[in-house]
Amino acid sequence: MINQQQKNRLIILSLFGMTIIPFLIAWGLSKNSGLLMGSVNKGQLIIPVVATGRDDFVGFDEFSVQNIGELKGHWLIANVIPHGQCAAVCLEAILKTKQLRLMLNKELPRTRRIVMILKGIAPDAAKQYWLKDALLWRLRVTQNKQDDALYTRLLGEENKLDDALMTQLIAQDKPEMAAASDLIRIKPSASLAEKLAGIMKNEVPEGMLFLIDPLGNLMMRYAPGFDPYQVKSDLMHLLKISQIG
Predict the structure, then answer these.
(1) Strand 57-59's sheet: what is its strand order?
(2) Do strands 209-212 and 217-222 pair parallel, antiparallel, or not at all (unpaired)?
(3) I need a surface site. Which of 14, 29, 75, 131 has the fewest CB within 10 A?
(4) Is residue 10 pLDDT above 60, yes or no?
(5) CA-to-CA distance for 244 and 171, rounded, in angstroms?
(6) pLDDT tens track for 111-121
(7) Could you tell me which of 245, 177, 168 has the C-alpha nearest to residue 211?
């Protein structure tokens, strides 16, 4: 018969295994990316995997500084604003990741959305980007030509979301909640900016997307114009394999 001391030892070993095994799996994937080739093929695997540290991610604004802790232990769906503005292809990529995260259903809590801002952005322009991220999805769910045309027009940086349009889009919802974007805005370190350029063998283009694992490894990249359904397929495979985050 197993005595109490042996039972306690088994419990401790079990808890240790439950804690360490997922991290070992994720570490193994980061060191042996080729293991994923058979099941993940919509985007491009970053080989060798590029590591990042917590110091590489700095909050761009007050909201992001307050929520930077949300990044720890999560898979990051990472957009990039490489220049001092976010044109239509850039903004649409950000809006696609909002759609992508919602499509993850029960896996959604394991992820966070970020945008890495490589150069300075004017405060008024930044405010418009985050408002559009929060509200423009509402024009896609109606599935009518008038709203589709307005959506396309508002992707242009020159076309602003004014108070009248915001009121129209928010409808009966509480403005302070409806207009709040969950996108965490990041100013990457100089080292991380160099790593991103190195991955691309050039400057990072507008509309680029990266997936970052919970250990901070840049795992996959997607070219501008990516299909969110294909990214979802890859990410679901990674979530299933890693069991971390």
Answers:
(1) 44-51, 217-222, 209-212, 75-81, 111-117, 184-188, 57-59
(2) antiparallel
(3) 14
(4) no
(5) 39
(6) 999 999 999 99
(7) 245
The b-or-e profile of 16-47 (16+ CB within 10 A means b, else e) is eeeeeeeeeebeebbeebeebeeebebbebbe
Task: Report the amino acid identity of residue 134.
Answer: A
φ/ψ (deg, to 5) at 13: -65, -40
DSSP the chain: ---HHHHHHHHHHHHHHHHHHHHHHHHHHHH-GGGGTTT--SSEEEEEEEE--GGGEEESSHHHHHHGGGGTTSEEEEEEE-SSS--HHHHHHHHHHHHHHHHTGGGGGGEEEEEEE-S---HHHHHHHHHHHHHTTHHHHS--HHHHHHHHHHHSTTS---HHHHHHHHTTS-HHHHT---PEEEEE-HHHHHHHHHHHTSPPPTT-EEEE-TTSEEEEEE-TT--HHHHHHHHHHHHHHH---
Q: Letter for the amino acid at 27?
A: W
Q: Tell me if the pTM is above 0.85.
A: no
Percent of the chain with pLDDT over 70: 83
What's the one-letter identity of residue 105?
N
**Higher per-residue pLDDT: 219 or 23:** 219
Torsion, Cα of 89, 137, 80, 208 (10° steps):
-50
CA 223 to CA 128: how far, in whole Å?
24
Nearest-angstrom CA–CA distance, 223 and 48: 18
Q: How far is 157 from 226, CA to CA, in rounded Å?
A: 20
The two three-digit tokens of residue 236, written as one number: 């679901």
